[in-house]
Amino acid sequence: MKKTFRSICMAFIGLSVLMMASCDKSAAVKEAADAAAKSCPIKLGPVGEATAFSVDNEALVCDITPDSAFISNENVDKSLVAKFLAIELLRNTPELFTKLIESEMGLKGNVKLGSGNVEAFVDGPELASFSKQATGANGKYASILLPLVNQYLNSQKQKELGEGLTFKKVQVKGSKEEVEINVDESKISFDDLKRKTMNLKENEKVEYLKDFVGMALPLVAEMGYDLDYLFLFKSGQQTYMEITADEINAYLSKDNATENKEEAKEEKK
How high is the pLDDT of residue 259? Predict the structure, then answer.
C-alpha cells in the first residue's frame, strides 16, 4: 500500500514538474510574442504582413494581412501557407521562433480575407524539422523557400501569361530557375516571339513575366541563379530567354531603391 501511494506521489510530482516546465516555456513564447508585436506590421515575404501575435493553448497565433498575389481567396493551400509562415517567422523574428521551437508548440496563421479568416497551422514537430533545415542551410533560407514558391507556382498550371502564352511548369535545374511556357502558334509565331524576346532590354526582360514569377525573383537572386524562360511550340520548335543573376540583382536593387524613396515620401506626409 505504501509503495502504491509512493508511486502515485512520484507520478504526481513528475507530472507537476512537466506542467510547470510547459507553462514556463509557454510564458517565454508569450513574452517573445509581445516583444515582436511591438514591431508589427512585419513583412513576411510572399505571405504578406504580420499584424499581431498572441498565444493560445496549443500555438503561437499570427494574424496576417495577405499579399493578394499569393493569397486572394479561401481556395488556398493552407499547408503551404503555414510552411511559408514558419520560414518567414524564422527569417524575420528569430528570437520568437527559437522560443517557439523550445516550447514544442505549434504555429497558427489567421489569414484575414474579405470573406472571412483562413486558418493555416503547422505543428511542433514540423516546426522542429524546419528549424533543422534552416540550420543546415547556414542562413540561406532561399534554399528552403524557393522550392515552396515553385510548388505554389506549379499549382497554377494552364495559367495564361499573355497573348498565346500558357504556363506549363517551373523547376530548378542546376544553377538555373527554369520556367516552361506553352505557346499557341495561332496567336504568336516562332519568329515573332524570338524577335520580341531578343530585343528586350535588361529591365524589360525581368519585367516581361514579373507579375507571375515576381515572388520567386528575390529568392532566385539570393541563390545566385539565372532565370530561363523556355518557350515551347506544338511544332516542336522552342526558344528561350535567359536573365542572368546579375541582371536580376541590378533590377531588384533599383526596384528597392524606388520603393524606399516612396516610403520616405509617405513618412514625411
Answer: 53
